[in-house]
Amino acid sequence: MNGSESANNRAAASGITLALIAFSGFPVGDAIVKSMAIDWPAAAVAALRFSIGAIALAVLLLWREGRDGFQIRRPWLHAARGLALAVGTITFFSAIYILPLAEAVAIAFVNPIITALLSGWLLKEKMRPATWVATLVAFGGVLIMLRPNLAEFGWVAVLPLVSAFAMAAMLILNRMVSSQRSIFAAQFYLSFWAAIFLIIAATLGHLTVPVMVVGGLPGWDVVIKCTVIAITATSCHFLLFMATMRTTAAAIAPLVYIQLIISSAISVYIFGDPIDSIALIGGSLILLSGLMLWRSERKAATVLEA
């Protein structure tokens, strides 16, 4: 092995390590959100979290690029990204307030499958047979996981599935603005519009929905927790960006499923949520579908490179 190959291997190993750290950090933020279920409504928590994130990103963008950094093209697409993120966040936060953390995260993990379907429909990207098979397996897993939850929690159990569709829509919109000259500007406007829509949703919920009534200003513990979530989520995304600079997306993709393992551990050992055999079967099918999709994408990429 020559020096160049050795350096590439070390870079790839460090990239995988960074990705593992990043994916391990996301469930921690989810657990913090769930811990606020009795403190503040989900919409208000989401609005505060993204408001903090938007302010921090605005300062960072101004420091790095000055006022010119705030100049963007196609602002309506950024507003649409923010709306999709707002819907995805509020439904997911609401889901983990009510459902066991592991099951909410597992259902939301059909996001890559939905993204593949929407890509074929909206971006006219060709759907391979393997994608259709993975889609059927994933939705079979979702139906299995939803059956006991629908009986216990009602249609609120569908919330993580709604979140998955919304986040998939955001990913499609991200591709539409991929030519954005500044990644910091793109991230700022995503958080900015999400905060705007979430503030509107929290206000309307406060006025019309009893369970969304905000009983005064948040306590310092809520503010601190929302700040921690904003910092950890931003840091995890930054680590993922660094990981993709060191190794391929194909090598990183399957590591995302460590979130299911960590979320399950947190759900059982911290929140005391039981995981029954039906949920395990459904979650395993969703995991299998994701790995099938990853394997298919990697094989296709290898063929193209050849």
General description of the model:
Helix 2 packs antiparallel against helix 3, helix 2 runs antiparallel to helix 8 (183-208) and helix 2 packs across helix 9 (220-246). The model has no long low-confidence stretch (mean pLDDT 80). The chain has helices at residues 3-34, 42-65, 75-98, 101-108, 111-122, 129-153, 159-176, 183-208, 220-246, 249-252, 258-269, 277-305. The protein is 79% helix and 0% strand. It has 306 residues and is mainly alpha-helical.
- Percentage beta strand: under 5%
Number of strands: 0
The multimeric state of the shown protein is: single chain
Alpha-beta classification: mainly alpha
Q: Please, what is the average pLDDT?
A: 80
Ends distance:
22 Å
What letter string, H or E per element, gives the SSE order?
Answer: HHHHHHHHHHHH
Principal-axis shape: globular
Q: Percent of residues in helical segments?
A: over 70%
Task: Give the uncertain stretches in residue-range form.
Answer: none
Please give the radius of gyration in angstroms: 20 Å
| Helix segment tally | 12
For the largest beta-sheet, the strand count, sense and barrel status come to: none
